[in-house]
Amino acid sequence: MDRNDDFREFVAAHQQSLMRTAYLLTGDPHQAEDLLQTVLLKVLGRWNRLTRLERPEAYARKALVNQHISWRRRRVRNELPTAEPPDRPYASEDPLLVRLVMRQALMRLAPRQRAVIVLRFYEDRTERETAELLNCSIGTVKSQTHYALARLRDLAPDLAPKLAGLEPEEANR
Amino acid sequence: MTWLRDVLVDLADDSPRVDLAERTIMLRERRRRTTISLVAAAMVVITALGATLTVRLLPPGPQDVATRPDELPARGVGPLSHARKIFCPAGAENCRDGSWLLVTRAGRKYYLRQALPSLRPGRDSPLAISRDGRKIAYYSAEENTFQVRDLASGQTTTAPQEIPSKRLGSVSRLMLSDDGRFVAFSKVPDLKDPALLIDMREGRTRELPNRWVPVGLSADGGFITLAEYSPKARLRTMSNLWTPSKSDHTTTVTLPQHYHFSPLAPDGATVAAIENHSTAKRPCRIGDLVLLDTRTGKKRTTTVMRGLPPGVTGVSLRTWLNADEVTVLTTTVRCRPASDTPTDKPTQTNPPNRTIHAYALNVRTGKTRKLATHITQDFSSIALPGPPGAQ
What we know:
The structure holds 2 protein chains of 2 kinds. By secondary structure, chain A is an all-alpha fold. Chain A has 10 helices and no strands. Chain B folds into 3 domains: 2-57, no CATH class; 68-211, no CATH class; 257-391, no CATH class. In chain B, strand 6 and strand 7 form a beta hairpin. The longest helix of chain B has 37 residues, at 21-57. The radius of gyration of chain B is 24 Å and the shape is globular.
């Protein structure tokens, strides 16, 4: 058996899930691919040690989020979508427009805020899990979530009612 | 599930589907080798500086050649598993750029110095391996034409007429019959010189249409199957090839969509093909596996392939392993639409090596099983036993 077969199995099982998170974090398919590639190189470099862990994918996910934040600190913001959302009011039920507006708004969040939104609302993680993944306190996760949702409401005022409904429900978790 | 989660799930559906496992392993291996090389180079410099005088006085030690390929011996070579072209990075020394490397089933490697090396870009030098792996056909640099070599006995047969190397074209295809008697050659571009079917035993040749890839030949050499994948997908059968009168029978069928064709199946009347859904805007897209009647073009079966890694962007169908399984080579290299390709940069003449996986694909069930992994530049740089596929 090839010594890399375990790693191949790991990638086959988790890469699509990791790629989806990477895509939400970066907003760009090529940057998502680069981000995940970088993380998988790290994983492969530590593979012997990681196989002793119960869930090596947790390491990969944590590395993915923190690598993204680290990159975004250094990089110029250049990944804004080319399609612009409409200037005039639009129907918040139109899924295409909602997608376009939310994508644009997500790209304008600070990297840590975007990570909080993705981890809390896409991956459905608790505040404690999110804090562990981001190496921060639960209080920081709460405040970052609050600021991120407020910023999204500012950036997408037509969707503000739908976003406003999230916080009280989530704050209790 | 919240409204926001629904939107994020919807957005995440646009994420790219690629297989990064092989790329990651290759990158890590490359980095590891680079590190080892740098450390080794530093050690060499330090050692050399410290012991120059002593080393000069000592006779040179024997080189470690255990892992290096040998020259092809005069006889006694076992059956081949495959052959691949060697491509050398810029500035590499003692590297035989464009030459063929023969690999036996036992893992022995041999340089085929008798074959003319390919040139990048512009001149292809094709190689074919008989289905049993015991004979090869290649363009001889010395004879300026094709030769067939029996690897066990070392016996070579030379084609009856010279073919100038400038006629080899930039993309060429070579097929060797099971018994090594017949060689079929075609190439692109199709200038005035024709493609050829050569009877090596009787010393005679017959013209074939250019651009068409020879994918199957009957045992007596009288019936050939050809495939064309571009600009149209077509299949052609030609019979009575060696009859003096104009009594050859040709049937040509044009297919309604593009395919990656396999060699002729063992039943002599079918080819397997993978649907090619690529367009200029959305390149490298493949569909289902089909079995096609070579005379009518009629689709006999359509099967969904199972077990290939996600994100496969290229396929090449090759050797039939038995009546149900055909070899498929796959790659997962990222494809970009033609409109995304920079036009102000010169064409890359020496692209990097890539990982190519070989699978056995069951044409009845669509199931695959892994056979091997090859590292080379592209599908045309690897030859497997049996006729080539057309892609």
